[in-house]
Design a protein that fits this description.
The chain has a two-stranded antiparallel sheet. Helix 5 (90-105) packs antiparallel against helix 6 and helix 7 runs antiparallel to helix 8 (175-186). The radius of gyration is 17 Å and the shape is globular. The relative contact order is 0.13. It has 9 helices and 2 strands. The longest helix has 25 residues, at 110-134. 74% of the residues lie in helices and 4% in strands.
């Protein structure tokens, strides 16, 4: 039986996406901004859901949005998150990343799950927003090209989140933001949304 809590989070998240779409159309915001607004909002909903939903419900929550976003991918219904010129499946990989992280870390390690979701939502979201909107200095390694501004923001926010979740400052925790920043640099086509939550959750799990 589907719980009220699950229905609430599904409806609330759809309302968030629809509201984001209306804001884009009313104020003519660029897609990179509205994509990140949805990115932040979606991750926040998942973070909050971990206090109220079971592992199975979070997985079902994610599946609903995987299906919905795949079905609408080639339409203009959710242009605020899907009308992007570069090749990416990030909006679909995000709920898939949530599912993967939930499979590995729930219900036994909610804190690690939450850390992984916040890394994806805050660190990755801010890096994309700053990189696309304000990035002026770029560097390339192999086939990956990222802005110094975006990468720096990713490292800084990852470090802050690591300190918050570990409740202390130790040189050893520098390894977590360094590994995550390096991983994010090489992930293309939105794969960071799929991979980062689980990697981040695993790394924090090792030291909690």
């Amino acid at each position: 039986m589907i719980s009220f809590n699950l229905i609430f989070f599904i409806v609330a998240t759809f309302c968030l996406i629809i509201g984001n779409e209306l804001i884009k159309r009313k104020f003519l915001l660029p897609v990179y901004v509205t994509r990140k607004m949805a990115h932040f909002g979606g991750a926040l909903m998942v973070f909050l859901s971990s206090f109220f939903l079971t592992q199975g419900e979070i997985i079902l929550f994610g599946l609903v949005f995987v299906v919905a976003l795949l079905l609408t991918r080639h339409t203009n219904i959710f242009s605020s998150i899907q009308a992007v010129k570069r090749k990416t499946f990030g909006e679909v990989f995000l709920p898939m990343g949530v599912i993967l992280c939930a499979l590995f870390f729930l219900p036994q390690d909610v804190k690690s799950f939450q850390f992984g979701i916040l890394i994806m939502g805050i660190s990755d979201g801010l890096a994309g927003l700053i990189g696309e909107g304000f990035g002026k200095h770029y560097f390339k390694l192999f086939n990956s090209r990222k802005s110094i501004e975006g990468t720096s923001i990713f490292f800084l926010t990852s470090l802050i989140l690591t300190v918050i979740f570990t409740s202390g400052i130790d040189y050893k925790i520098l390894a977590i933001p360094l590994i995550l920043t390096s991983t994010e640099f090489f992930l293309e086509y939105g794969l960071d949304n799929l991979v980062l939550p689980t990697i981040a959750a695993y790394l924090i799990h090792l030291i909690l």
